[in-house]
């Protein structure tokens, strides 16, 4: 794990390298392959879907079972372990309670002759993509379904790759729990294309949600404009702020919890003690031994992991706001001073016991968060992402007389004669 010191003369350069060490462009080959898949789906529809599902997922399906019927959903849902399923149900309850608070209020402003008001309404249809290749995450489906349901979306579509024709019982149980009627066993860029453009079997949606591999992410970028997308999620990342009076093993466990996601995950420790940094690094090496994804952790930590040793943690907020991490965990006892100055972070966890894993599963917040520095201008997924806002204007004759002169002036200065005319024609 590379260590950089604030006191060093080249610290600024090294920090900038750390910020930008994962901003590689998508290879042209992947872009062109994704475009080719999308074009074929647009042209050949269901036939293209069947071809790519067999090719990439080793799942030979027909036009008759692109959609997964209720009988199949119920059958595999019953295979879920009831104790584990109850854990997911508790998570659903807590996530629902938190997200219900996000539902927006309509508002109205009125004066003599003029009324303007705003009205929120749900998106008509959404497609929820569930990854099923390298990993399958029932928790991510929950994080999408809960705000979609609270928003009031009428048509919710779930699409997921089923490698070798196998179904995840917990995914099926969650689909059953939320009573989702439209579920497709397709994945990859071809699924994104089908959701965006539609086929004979699959009706297009208005907005697409959910993470995926590099092809899925690239496909979402390409179809954006035809449909809306939530965000393009990159590899996971965490910044942990910890002073020397903390538990090195606990801090190390927070770092490797993100590193196990992907070899491109970024785990960073910010501390004010080199001795503590060394203890964390030593703990990290011990803790990853025996873990299923120890090799992934090792590669991630070696390439993208880092320790930043500051003169004082009071200045840590400056570097956090530049990094704009997906996850931020503040172990420091001086957390109030740090937290109050944080503007850019997807989700913030405060205190030694506030493991980020709680946020991933059960605390109630959403774990679909901005990555790659996009927390500077984006928020984590919520109810508003499944809604849109309309504004309404009502002006009577008195209101017209109040505003028409100023409106004509503004239209005239911008050279829009027809705008001016539409006002003049209504004058007494």
Topology:
Elements: E1 2-5, H1 11-20, H2 28-44, H3 46-57, H4 70-77, H5 82-100, E2 107-111, E3 114-122, E4 125-129, H6 138-151, E5 155-159, H7 169-177, E6 182-184, H8 188-197, E7 207-209, H9 214-223, E8 228-229, E9 237-241, H10 248-259, E10 266-271, H11 274-287, H12 294-304, E11 306-309, H13 316-323, E12 327-330, H14 335-339, E13 347-350, H15 356-361, E14 387-395, H16 397-413, H17 417-424
Parallel strand pairs: 1-11, 4-5, 4-7, 5-6, 7-8, 9-10, 9-12, 10-11, 12-13
Antiparallel strand pairs: 2-3, 3-14
CATH topology of the largest domain: Rossmann fold
Evaluate the radius of gyration. Answer: 25 Å
What integer is the average pLDDT?
94
**Helicity level:** 40-55%
CATH superfamily of the largest domain: Nitrogenase molybdenum iron protein domain
Could you say which overall geometry the principal axes of the C-alpha atoms support?
A: globular
Strand order of the largest sheet: 1-11-10-9-12-13
Count of discrete domains:
3
- First-to-last CA distance: 77 Å
Summarize the structure.
The chain is of the alpha/beta class and 428 residues long.
Can you walk through the features of this model?
- This protein has 3 domains: 2-22 and 235-364, 3-Layer(aba) Sandwich (Rossmann fold); 28-104 and 122-229, Rossmann fold (3-Layer(aba) Sandwich), CATH 3.40.50; 396-424, no CATH class.
- It is 44% helix and 16% strand.
- It has 17 helices and 14 strands.
- Strand 5 (155-159), helix 7 (169-177) and strand 6 (182-184) form a beta-alpha-beta unit.
């Amino acid at each position: 794990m590379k260590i950089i010191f604030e006191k060093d003369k080249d610290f600024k350069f090294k920090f900038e390298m750390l910020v930008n060490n994962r901003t590689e462009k998508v290879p042209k080959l992947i872009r062109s392959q994704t475009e080719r898949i999308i074009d074929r789906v647009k042209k050949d529809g269901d036939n293209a879907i069947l071809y790519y599902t067999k090719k990439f997922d080793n799942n030979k399906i027909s036009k008759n079972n692109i959609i997964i019927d209720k009988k199949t959903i119920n059958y595999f849902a019953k295979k879920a372990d009831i104790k584990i399923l109850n854990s997911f149900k508790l998570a659903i309850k807590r996530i629902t309670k938190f997200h219900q608070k996000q539902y927006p209020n309509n508002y109205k402003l009125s004066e003599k002759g003029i009324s303007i008001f705003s009205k929120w309404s749900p998106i008509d249809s959404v497609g929820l993509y569930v990854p099923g290749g390298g990993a399958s995450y029932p928790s991510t489906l929950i994080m999408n379904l809960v705000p979609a349901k609270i928003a009031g979306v009428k048509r919710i579509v779930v699409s997921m790759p089923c490698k070798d024709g196998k179904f995840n019982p917990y995914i099926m149980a969650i689909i059953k729990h939320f009573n989702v009627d439209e579920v497709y066993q397709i994945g990859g860029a071809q699924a994104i294309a089908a959701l965006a453009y539609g086929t004979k079997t699959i009706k297009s949606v208005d907005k697409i949600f959910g993470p995926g591999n590099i092809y899925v992410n690239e496909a979402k970028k390409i179809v954006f404009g035809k449909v809306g997308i939530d965000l393009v999620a990159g590899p996971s990342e965490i910044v942990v702020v910890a002073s020397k009076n903390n538990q090195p093993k606990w801090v190390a466990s927070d770092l490797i919890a993100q590193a196990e996601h992907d070899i491109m995950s970024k785990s960073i420790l910010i501390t004010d003690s080199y001795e503590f940094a060394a203890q964390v690094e030593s703990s990290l090496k011990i803790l990853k031994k025996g873990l299923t994804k120890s090799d992934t952790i090792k590669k991630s930590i070696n390439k993208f992991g880092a320790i930043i040793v500051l003169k004082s943690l009071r200045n840590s907020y400056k570097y956090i706001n530049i990094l704009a991490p997906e996850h931020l965990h503040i172990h420091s006892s001086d957390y109030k001073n740090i937290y109050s100055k944080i503007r850019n972070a997807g989700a913030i966890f405060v205190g030694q016991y506030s493991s980020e894993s709680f946020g991933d599963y059960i605390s109630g917040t959403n774990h679909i968060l901005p990555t790659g520095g996009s927390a500077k201008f984006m928020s984590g997924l919520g109810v508003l992402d499944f809604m849109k806002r309309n504004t309404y204007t009502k002006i009577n004759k008195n209101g017209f007389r109040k505003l028409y002169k100023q409106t004509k002036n503004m239209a005239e200065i911008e050279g829009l004669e027809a705008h001016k005319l539409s006002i003049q024609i209504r004058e007494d």
